Amino acid sequence: MMCPATRRFMVIVTCLLLVLTSLAQPDNDSFKQTIKPYRILTSGKQVTVKSTKLIKNIMVWTASGHRIVEQREVKASTFNFNVPAKENICFIMIQYDGMKPFTEKVGVR
User: pTM above 0.90?
Assistant: First the structure.
């Protein structure tokens, strides 16, 4: 039988090892950042989406939830739109053929 001091030390070491291993991030692809095939440019309230691929669908909504743009079958690599005067933040969802949609928050002046 172990003495109480040794048993206490073993419990502390075991707890520390469990905590340290639980804090380590897993090495899988879900944490890797995907490369965006587009750039979002703003000039005042005008927003331009420039893409390296043809955009299939694009949807833009404000922080309050109002849709500004919902365009299907765009089939272009550039898309322009204007944000209403009272809005400072909008969200953009861009979808390509055969790919998951990309969503991004954009601030405008």
Answer: no
